[in-house]
């Protein structure tokens, strides 16, 4: 059995608690994937101290050179992609094509950051005074605390860690306790690539101890968190008291609209992938399907036929379409929402139960579930379920579809299927979301574009692409006056010369 330690100041060390916790395979809970440190506040303090000590040197390493270490680490991930995907499937439960994709997201993020090392563009602007330059530079901030979820066990840690260190910060990461092995492998790739000690530190344990200690530590200047809106709001509150910079990537209740002009087969492929990929456990999952009345009955029939054919089971088996949920608690949550859906009058037409039978007995499997005739005020229409539950709505017009799409507190991803250009353009204009897809499902964002959402999905930051560097840098404005005399901004003007 693999025993994983914390990684602090370039060394793998045990927690001061002397205690550990197990990480089990959600498809077969008899299998222990690894044993991890149950860390304490003291461990976090050591990690932050190491990160703080490493910072003055690391920020002086030229960004292109920081990028080269990231490139080496990324090449290691590329070489190990298959092995890492298998480990991730065992600890997280999503199917192999998806865990390969998860590792690939980290690889894409790494190679993008390598290039960014030679960009990190800043801006110059004219001064209002003659013989004076007005320049700006991006500066690293210091120690970053990254708190990451279990649904993208390597991709999301990479979205935070890689740009943070490329920009010259140092990092302490606390991965989700359901998937700490994948994050450890990311750390190992950096260790092998020659990242100096203390630049990246890894501490496992509970949110209430490790996460909280990071949040409250005065030397942690930035907190980057992905998870639920409830936890995000609390993080923002505590971090606000300590005047830390916070980036939050939170929940979603992502709609897909299908209009009569759509290619229905294409929309069908899209909704099945969007709703049941990752067993619905993506913040971008398609959890609401908004159908125009003209195609409502036909499309639902097609959908049920297709979902019946899905193969649910061992996610390591290449022919499986959907694996289990992450843990017992998540399965209970999903089932509770299904019960609420039924009580509130939505019509359950498929699924709604944990799967039973030999193959499923030792995993957190749940049937792909479809509710129709869902009304916008219902709980299953409003709240993020994070499971394979699709709520279907019937509308008379695109305007009504968009009203429903926008009628939730979240605004991460969204999609419309149509072959009518004007409908597509209208949706792009009107849907309140950080991401809108046309003729593609709500999942599958590429790493070089801004990722994040509006309303309760976050606090205005965007991970991914060039925008993530806004999170991990601060601007310095520099004025260079070469006029040889005192020039007073706002008071002297060049005409006075
Ligand atoms: C998430 O669910 O938190 O766009 C991230 C997607 C993935 C990332 C999802 N690339 O579905």
Brief descriptors of the model:
single chain, 497 residues, alpha/beta, Aldehyde Dehydrogenase, Chain A, domain 1, Aldehyde Dehydrogenase, Chain A, domain 2, 2 domains, 7-stranded mixed β-sheet, 5-stranded parallel β-sheet, 21 strands, globular, binds 2-aminohexanedioic acid
Helix and strand layout, with pairings?
Elements: E1 6-8, E2 11-13, E3 20-25, E4 28-37, H1 41-58, H2 63-79, H3 81-92, H4 96-116, E5 124-126, E6 132-140, E7 143-147, H5 155-166, E8 170-174, H6 180-192, E9 200-202, H7 207-216, E10 220-226, H8 229-241, E11 245-249, E12 254-258, H9 264-276, E13 286-292, H10 296-308, H11 328-343, E14 347-350, E15 369-372, H12 379-382, E16 389-395, H13 398-406, E17 410-411, E18 415-417, H14 421-430, E19 437-438, E20 454-455, H15 468-471, E21 473-481
Parallel strand pairs: 7-8, 7-10, 8-9, 10-11, 12-13, 12-18, 13-16, 15-16, 18-19
Antiparallel strand pairs: 1-2, 3-4, 5-6, 6-21, 14-15, 17-20
Helix pairs in contact: 1-7, 2-4, 2-6, 3-4, 3-6, 4-5, 9-10
The structure holds 2-aminohexanedioic acid.
Number of strands: 21
CATH architecture of the largest domain: 3-Layer(aba) Sandwich
State the end-to-end CA separation. 78 Å
Find the CATH superfamily of the largest domain.
Aldehyde Dehydrogenase, Chain A, domain 1
**What is the CA-based Rg, rounded?**
24 Å
Share in β-strands? 15-25%
Approximate helicity band: 25-40%
- Across the major sheet, the strand order is 14-15-16-13-12-18-19
């Amino acid at each position: 059995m693999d025993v994983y330690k914390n990684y602090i100041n370039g060394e793998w060390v045990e927690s001061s608690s002397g205690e550990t916790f197990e990480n089990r395979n959600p498809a077969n809970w008899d299998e222990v994937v690894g044993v991890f440190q149950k860390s304490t506040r003291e461990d976090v303090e050591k990690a932050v101290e190491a990160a703080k000590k490493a910072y003055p040197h690391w920020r002086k390493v030229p960004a292109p050179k920081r990028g080269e270490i990231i490139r080496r680490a990324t090449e290691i991930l590329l070489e190990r992609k298959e092995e890492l995907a298998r480990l991730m499937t065992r600890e997280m439960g999503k199917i192999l094509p998806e865990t390969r994709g998860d590792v690939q997201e980290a690889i894409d993020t790494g190679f993008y950051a390598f290039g960014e090392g030679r960009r990190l563009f800043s801006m110059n602007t004219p001064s209002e005074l003659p013989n004076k330059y007005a320049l700006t530079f991006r500066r690293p901030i210091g120690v970053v605390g990254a708190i990451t979820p279990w649904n993208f066990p390597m991709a999301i840690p990479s979205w935070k860690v890689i740009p943070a260190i490329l920009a010259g910060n140092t990092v302490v990461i606390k991965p989700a306790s359901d998937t700490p092995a994948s994050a450890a492998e990311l750390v190992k790739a950096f260790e092998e690539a020659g990242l100096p000690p203390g630049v990246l530190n890894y501490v496992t344990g509970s949110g209430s101890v490790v996460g909280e200690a990071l949040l409250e530590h005065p030397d942690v200047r930035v907190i980057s968190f992905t998870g639920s809106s409830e936890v995000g709001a609390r993080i923002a509150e505590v971090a606000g008291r300590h005047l830390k910079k916070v980036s939050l990537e939170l929940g979603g209740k992502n709609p897909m609209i299908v209009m009569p002009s759509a290619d229905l087969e294409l929309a069908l492929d899209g909704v099945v992938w969007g709703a049941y990929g990752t067993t619905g456990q993506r913040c971008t999952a398609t959890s609401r399907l908004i159908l125009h009345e003209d195609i409502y009955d036909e499309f639902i029939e097609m959908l049920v036929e297709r979902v019946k054919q899905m193969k649910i089971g061992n996610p390591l088996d290449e022919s499986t379409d959907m694996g289990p949920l992450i843990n017992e608690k998540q399965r209970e949550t999903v089932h509770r929402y299904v019960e609420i859906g039924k009580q509130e009058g939505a019509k359950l037409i498929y699924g709604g139960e944990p799967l039973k039978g030999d193959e499923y007995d030792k995993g957190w499997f749940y049937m792909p579930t479809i509710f129709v005739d869902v009304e916008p005020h219902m709980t299953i229409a409003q709240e993020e379920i994070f499971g394979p539950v699709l709520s279907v709505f019937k509308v008379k017009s695109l305007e009504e579809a968009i009203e429903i799409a926008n009628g939730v507190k979240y605004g991460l991803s969204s999609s419309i299927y149509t072959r009518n250009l004007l409908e597509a353009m209208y949706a792009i204009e009107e849907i309140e979301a950080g991401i809108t897809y046309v003729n593609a499902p709500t999942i599958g964002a590429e790493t070089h574009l801004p990722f994040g959402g509006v309303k309760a999905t976050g606090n205005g930051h965007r991970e991914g692409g060039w925008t993530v560097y806004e999170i991990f840098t601060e601007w310095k404005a520099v004025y260079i006056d070469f006029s040889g005399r005192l020039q007073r901004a706002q008071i002297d003007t060049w005409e006075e010369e």
